[in-house]
Amino acid sequence: MTLMKSVFVLLALLVVSTRAFTVLPLTRVSYISKTAASSAFTVPTALKSLEVAEIPSYESKESPKVLGGIKIGLRKLVVVTGASSGLGRECARSLVNSGKYFVIMAVRDVDKGKAVAKKFNFPENSYTVMKLELASLQSVRDFVANLKAFKSARPLTHLVCNAAVYLPKDPKPSWSDDGYEMSMAVNHLGHFLLVNLLLDDMKKAKGARCVIVGSITGNTNTVGGGLVYPKADLGKLKGMESGGKQPIAMMDGKNYDGAKAYKDSKVMNMMTVSELHRRYHKSTGITFSSMYPGCIAETQLFREKRQWFRKIFPLFMKYVTGGYVGEQEAGERLAQVVDDPICSKSGVYWSWNGGAQTVGRYDASGKPKGAGGSGGEIFENQQSDAVQDRDMAMRMFDLSFDLAGISEKEKTKDGPEPDNML
Ligand SMILES: NC(=O)c1ccc[n+]([C@@H]2O[C@H](COP(=O)([O-])OP(=O)(O)OC[C@H]3O[C@@H](n4cnc5c(N)ncnc54)[C@H](OP(=O)(O)O)[C@@H]3O)[C@@H](O)[C@H]2O)c1
């Protein structure tokens, strides 16, 4: 088979697998009890009689940790959300191993976070694990209170918003504690609140950076975002304008589509970074960045996919599109955006090894180039026109204040008036 033919066959397989299994009789429930091992799971329809409404939501915060005996010294304080798996875990590992950072692993499952740190031999006194359930705005607020108690007057220097869910197979939306569709709540709104509650603290730090992980899937100018349906599209933000709560599942106000909800949330992540940069970079000095790590085809992000897909997908991305990157290398990429002096430039969407606007081509050394996969150099990537839509970004940002319940008093006062924005 020629390369082109195999591309088409595998592409077709992938599209079918992405779209075909969306009718399984599963119901997703938000379960955010501190006694649960994990916060979200699926139950077969047959078990619906368990009355999901009675399952407790996020109940109470942990007792605040205090810095106590930990000597941070000259190390910088970094919060990494979703540090219990995949990209976040590997980023935390890279930062811990550099010896330059004290890492706060912000995770929904504290026991899992601790087990990960132990398994990967994070040195004692180089990290702590704190509860953060992004599907609960109250939990985000409790996390910020705990973080402030933990670090005392020392400002936070780095914030990495990495955690996410991808729910392409769910036929019906699941809802966060606050009544928002789960991918929008976890990927966008929880992080939006977290960033905004920490801006005033971070602006006190020298060289502070805030990174929100983006994706090509939200960028329609790429193969993954432009050719694989559904495409990200926030429409006219009708869902958000109507309050964005149950039964409204999509920010464009249309019918629920789990794969699209993920892509829409990634667009919002990238728009949030652009808007944070325009509104607050000059006045706070904080560097705001987004990045595309490459296709980390083996992470738990694809947990809803069938086993055969999870076996084929990494091979497809490695040998056909050239977009594949391993977890460790992807984590090093994210850590680079946190640490590398060249990444002190604000408002940038960082990528490596090409913009993934075509499938990769093999270079003279036999390695795929151009599709964002393993290897290559870091560069300032171009976002799609949709992501760069300034009016849409401003509107989305302002509506997110309301949806995330951020009061006027809580907004940083350092931002310029909207018409003075960069
Ligand atoms: N994988 C890729 O190919 C790819 C490509 C582009 C961008 N990305 C982005 O990379 C980031 C990390 O994804 P990944 O591939 O590393 O996936 P992953 O292995 O599934 O990691 C996601 C992390 O988010 C956490 N999380 C999920 N729901 C949460 C909630 N309600 N509250 C708090 N934390 C929650 C998970 O916690 P648990 O450990 O408890 O499950 C996990 O630690 C995401 O932003 C994703 O959009 C991934």
TrEMBL record:
GO terms for biological process: chlorophyll biosynthetic process; photosynthesis. Keywords: Chlorophyll biosynthesis, NADP, Oxidoreductase, Photosynthesis, Signal. Pathway: Porphyrin-containing compound metabolism; chlorophyll biosynthesis. Residues 1-20 form the signal peptide. Pfam families: adh_short. Gene3D superfamilies: NAD(P)-binding Rossmann-like Domain. Its EC number is 1.3.1.33. GO terms for molecular function: protochlorophyllide reductase activity. Belongs to the short-chain dehydrogenases/reductases (SDR) family. POR subfamily. This is protochlorophyllide reductase. It comes from Triparma laevis f. longispina.
